Amino acid sequence: MTRPFESPRMLIGVIPVNDLSRAAKSDRDLLIDVLDRVTTSGRYIAGPEVRAFEESFGSYVGVTECVGVGNGTDALTIALLALGIGRGSQVATCANAGFYASSAVLAVGADPVFVDVLGETACMDPRDLESVLSAGVDCVVITHLYGRMADMPQLVELCKRAGVPVIEDCAQAAGASLDGRHAGAWGDIGAFSFFPTKNLGALGDGGALTTASTEMGQRIRRLSQYGWAEKYRCVMPGGRNSRLDEIQAAVLTARLPQLDWSNERRRQIVDRYAKVASEFESSCLLEQRQGDVAHLAVVVTPNRDAVSARLRQLGVGSDVHYPIADHQQPVIRNGNHRGLPETEALTARVLSVPAFPDLTDGEVEIVCEALKGALAFGSAASQQQVDVHSK
Ligand SMILES: Cc1ncc(COP(=O)(O)O)c(C=O)c1O
Fold first, then answer.
1. pLDDT tens string 222-233
2. How far apart are alpha carbons 373 and 314 in whole angstroms?
3. Nearest C-alpha to atom 7 of ligand 1 is from which residue?
4. Considering 216, 242, 257, which residue would you say is the last residue of a domain?
5. What is the pLDDT of residue 281?
6. Residue 305 structural domain
7. Model confidence band, residue 7 (pLDDT cutoffs 50, 70, 90)
8. How, if at all, do strands 166-169 and 139-143 pair?
9. Residues 263, 308: one domain?
C-alpha cells in the first residue's frame, strides 16, 4: 500500500544526480575496442595512448603543452610545484569548491588565502581578489565552478598587474570557453580532472595539466615522474609518480569527440530547469552563459533541506556541492579570520539536481515538475518560518 507521503515514483526509484552506467552502455562498443587494443598492446603506462591523448586534448584546449597525470588533485599540486610554490607561500583561492585546491595548497606546504565569490556566479569575485592581491600572495587558483567560466579577462588582468601567476582549476569545466578561448588556456597552467563524473570522464582516476609554455610543460612532465629529465636521471626535487595510464588515456581519446555534444545537452537541461526556478522569487538556478558547460545544475534556495526532502518524495535525487566551506574545515587553522559572506550564504543554500547528459527528455520533465513542487513547498515553509518569527 502506498503511504500518504509517497508518490508512485518513489516506489519505482529515484532519478539519481548521476548514473555513469548509462554512458558506459551507450559507449559499450567503443570501450570494448579500447580495452581490447590496450590490453593486447602490452603497454600500460607512458605509451602511445597517453601521447595521443595529450596531443589531442592539448590541441582541443588550444595550448602547445598537455601532460596527463593521475588525477585532478595531483594536477593542482604539480601546477603549484611547477610554479615554485612551497612552504611559506600564500595561495589565493575560493572556499566554495570542495577543498580540492586547498588540499593541494596544503600538500605543498603553502597556506591558502580565501577570496570571496560573486553570489550570482559562485566564481571568484574580482574586487575581493584585488584586495587579497594588494596584501600580497604568490599564486592564484581560479576555479570554473559547476561548469561556469570565472571572469577570466578581469581576474587574469588583475593577476598580471600584480605579477602573480594563475592556475585554472578546470576540473568541472572541460570544453568551457569564454571569448572563444577554452578553459585551461587562460592561466599560466590549467588543471583538469577526468574523474568519471566529470564532463570528460575516464573509467577511473585521471587528470591533466595544460600550458602554453614549453619550459613549464617540461617542469610539469618532470615533476609528474620522479623529477626525471630522462630515465633514472633525477634533476628536480619534489618529483612524484603521477601518471595517466594507457587505458584511461585511450578511453578519454575515444570520448573527446563527444564532449561538445554532451556539453550542449547538459546546457539544454540546465536551461530548462532555470526557467522553472525563475518562477519562484526566493530561489534561482545558477544559469549557464554562452560557453559554460553545465557540469552541475545548482539551485540556490533558502530552504534547502525541505526542498531536498520534497524532491526525494517526488522521485528526484539531489546533492550538495559543497556543504562545508574550505575556511570552515577543521583542518584549516584560524579559518574564520576573514569573512566570506557570499561563500557562506551559498554554502548554506546550494542544491544540485540531476543534469547529466544521459537523462531522457521524460526524466528532465519529471525533474521540472518535481522542482516546481519542491520549490513551492520550500517557499511555503519559508513563509511559515517568517510568520512564526513575526509573532
Ligand atoms: C573543482 C574540482 N577541483 C579538483 C578536483 C579534484 O579532482 P580529482 O578528484 O580527480 O582529484 C575536483 C573533483 O573531484 C573538482 O571538482
1. 999 999 999 999
2. 8
3. 72
4. 257
5. 86
6. 8-21+258-386
7. very low
8. parallel
9. yes
Residue nearest to atom 15 of ligand 1 (CA): 171
The bridge status of strand 189-193 relative to strand 166-169 is: parallel
Choose among 237, 265, 193: nearest CA to 26.
265
Does a structural domain hold residue 162?
A: yes
Looking up residue 349, the CATH number of its domain turns out to be 3.90.1150.10
What CATH number does the domain containing 52 carry? 3.40.640.10
65 lies in some domain: yes
Q: What was the pLDDT predicted at 365?
A: 97
Please give the pLDDT value at position 337.
63
Give the pairing type, strands 207-211 and 350-353: unpaired
**Range 377-389 burial, b when 16+ CB lie within 10 A, else e:** bbbebbeeeeeee
Total domains in the chain come to: 2
Closest ligand 1 atom to residue 71 Cα is 10
Flag the least confident range among 70-79, 196-205, 381-390: 381-390
Write out the three cell numbers for 298: 545548482
Q: How far is the CA of 221 from the centre of ligand 1 (A)?
A: 20
> Same structural domain for residues 13 and 50?
no
Domain finish residue from 225, 257, 289:
257
Q: For the ranges 38-47, 69-78, 272-281, 327-336, which has the lowest average pLDDT?
A: 327-336
* Whether the CB of 53 sits within 6 Å of ligand 1: no
Q: Does ligand 1 come within 6 angstroms of the Cβ of 248?
A: no
Statement to judge: residues 83 and 209 lie in one domain = yes
CA 348–ligand 1 middle distance (angstroms): 21
SS3 322: coil
pLDDT digits (tens, 9 = 90+) for 342-389: 999 999 999 999 999 999 999 999 999 999 999 998 777 766 665 545
* Distance between Cα 37 and ligand 1 center (Å): 29
Q: CB of 143 closer than 6 A to ligand 1? A: yes
Same domain, 92 and 148: yes
